[in-house]
RNA sequence: GGUUGGGUGGCCGAGUGGCUAGGCACAGGUCUGCAAAACCUGCUACGGCGGUUCGAAUCCGCUCUCAACCUCCA
């Protein structure tokens, strides 16, 4: 079954058939983190969503250039202090030390979630020249003005000359923005509250500073994405992604900068992931409604009753569509943990199934082929992982029934079995990016396996002699050691956890 | 106040004019020495009020309500 890839374009608020600018190639830009503190769980959700999108595009045969930036300058706090500088001041480190520390942490966390690294991971501080050039171009085009060493984007001038397009991504209108703009501090230099800085003069105590035609300063927050996406993907490219909260003002201003500098709008498809909530509310450090990935991994938090591994969390994320808010609750995580285990056990069972029938495929075999094809088709529909997963679970119950004998293996021919193994494996591991946890324990695993063979052999002997006191004692002791024994019709099985 | 998107069974979460989403939980059953697992069956819902339609959770209007954004945020 082959279907066309459709995706929801935030620009048009519609699902559209995806057609790349250059056949066979995809340029994908995703707004990365500002590296001034530990990576937030919400970041993990967004980047995992785009990881699956990246993986799926590759599966579809596209040669993808995936660019995800690191913002290490320009992002100011409410007080107007650069986030990097603030982190450095508090920890008594060089700003670049702060950036490196949290970049390293970010990479480690991405690896824990089994997210593939992007092809290019440009840093804002590594592209000061490109940003200065873009400011110059925007100035030359008459969409910005300089005041006291700072350069501001002139939103109203831009809007007047661009068909009132400013705000089209987020649905905002300038007059409404003006009417509602609140009293903001230190914005006297701006001609209008909607204008935004593309270059800022550095104050005397500002550490991060570069020479520019306007004196020493630093680039505005939104500029790096425009400059770097243009540099690596071109003035027009295919897909731009990011969190929903970046739609306004970040992405809106990015578009304005792109149009203002080259007359073209950058990305043709905008994809936005939705927010991660906890217990129905946005995660927020200030009111205690927050949890770190690390706390989830260890279970060390008042918000959870158990520990949840990165793959359980990934599975949990797969159960929600990327454009929906996702509510993190302990009960939902418990459900995900069990669901993930059931899925992985079925995957292991699939490997042990042996076709017994002839070349003809029975009903069960056909149902399995259909379910698998439908799972893939769901991915074509705006990367609908929850629906694809639902189809996968239709396969899971067939696999379990075949293994348990409730369904006959004579109903499934060898080629179907092989096709399901290949197709499901690709979907689960290459596209969903799941992996079997604990399976890579290495040499210790092999030793344990041999010991377990011995123990289960002894236990089987005890059971054959109806020495149930002994067999139960063995099972209880193994349980206490974290090993679960399950008696099946073809002998006992065991698993860790 | 404005913008954007929601309100679905015990919980999470898809769907979007007629056809069982799925996961978890719960109850009954099959299997089993017991247990666990697995399988089968059941619980069959769409915020409220109107309207369109042969038919609406799905479309339209009104209303209540939640979240995010508008101020740093993935």
From TrEMBL:
Its cofactor is Zn(2+). One of its GO terms (cellular component) is cytosol. The keyword Methyltransferase does not apply. GO terms for molecular function: ATP binding; cysteine-tRNA ligase activity; zinc ion binding. It is found in: Cytoplasm. Binds 1 zinc ion per subunit. Transmembrane segments: none annotated. A motif ('KMSKS' region) lies at residues 282-286. A motif ('HIGH' region) lies at residues 33-43. Keywords: Aminoacyl-tRNA synthetase, ATP-binding, Cytoplasm, Ligase, Metal-binding, Nucleotide-binding, Protein biosynthesis, Zinc. Its EC number is 6.1.1.16. GO terms for biological process: cysteinyl-tRNA aminoacylation. CDD domains: CysRS_core. Residues 374-443 form the Cysteinyl-tRNA synthetase class Ia DALR domain. PANTHER family: CYSTEINE--TRNA LIGASE, CYTOPLASMIC, CYSTEINYL-TRNA SYNTHETASE. Belongs to the class-I aminoacyl-tRNA synthetase family. Monomer. This is Cysteine--tRNA ligase.
């Amino acid at each position: 079954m082959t279907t066309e890839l459709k995706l929801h374009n935030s620009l048009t608020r519609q699902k559209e058939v995806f057609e790349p600018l250059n056949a066979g190639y995809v340029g994908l830009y995703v707004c990365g983190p500002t590296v001034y503190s530990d990576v937030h769980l919400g970041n993990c959700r967004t980047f995992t969503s785009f990881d699956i999108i990246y993986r799926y595009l590759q599966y579809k045969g596209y040669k993808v250039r995936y660019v995800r930036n690191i913002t290490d300058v320009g992002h100011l706090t409410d007080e107007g202090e650069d986030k990097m500088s603030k982190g450095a001041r508090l920890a008594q480190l060089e700003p670049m030390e702060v950036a490196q520390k949290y970049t390293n942490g970010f990479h480690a966390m991405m690896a824990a979630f089994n997210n593939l690294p992007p092809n290019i991971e440009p840093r804002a501080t590594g592209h000061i020249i490109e940003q200065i050039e873009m400011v110059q171009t925007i100035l030359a085009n008459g969409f910005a003005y300089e005041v006291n060493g700072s350069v501001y984007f002139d939103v109203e001038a831009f809007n007047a000359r661009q068909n009132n397009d400013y705000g089209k991504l987020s649905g905002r209108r300038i007059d409404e923005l003006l009417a509602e703009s609140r009293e903001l501090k230190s914005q006297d230099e701006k001609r209008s509250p909607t204008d935004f800085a593309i270059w800022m003069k550095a104050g005397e105590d500002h550490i991060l500073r570069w020479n520019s035609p306007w004196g020493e300063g630093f680039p505005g927050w939104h500029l790096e994405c425009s400059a770097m996406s243009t540099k690596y993907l071109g003035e027009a490219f295919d897909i731009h992604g990011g969190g929903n909260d970046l739609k306004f003002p970040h992405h809106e201003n990015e578009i304005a900068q792109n149009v203002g500098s080259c007359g073209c709008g950058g990305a043709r498809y905008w994809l936005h992931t939705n927010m991660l909530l906890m217990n129905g509310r946005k995660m927020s450090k200030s009111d205690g409604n927050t949890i770190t990935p690390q706390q989830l991994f260890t279970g060390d938090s008042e918000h959870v009753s158990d520990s949840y591994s990165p793959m359980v969390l990934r599975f949990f994320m797969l159960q929600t569509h990327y454009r929906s808010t996702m509510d993190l609750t302990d009960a939902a995580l418990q459900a995900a943990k069990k669901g993930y285990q059931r899925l992985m056990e079925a995957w292991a069972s699939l490997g042990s199934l042996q076709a017994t029938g002839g070349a003809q495929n029975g009903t069960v075999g056909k149902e399995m082929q259909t379910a698998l094809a439908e799972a893939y088709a769901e991915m074509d529909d705006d990367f609908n992982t929850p629906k694809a997963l639902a189809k996968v679970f239709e396969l899971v119950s067939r696999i379990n029934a075949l293994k348990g004998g409730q369904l006959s293996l004579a109903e499934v021919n060898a080629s179907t079995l092989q096709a399901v193994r290949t197709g499901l494996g690709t979907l689960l591991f290459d596209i969903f990016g799941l992996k079997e946890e604990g399976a890579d324990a290495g040499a210790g695993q092999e030793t344990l396996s041999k010991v377990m063979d011995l123990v289960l052999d002894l236990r089987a002997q005890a059971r054959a002699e109806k020495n149930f006191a002994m067999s139960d004692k063995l099972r209880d002791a193994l349980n206490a050691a974290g090993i679960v024994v399950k008696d099946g019709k073809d002998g006992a099985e065991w698993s860790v956890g």
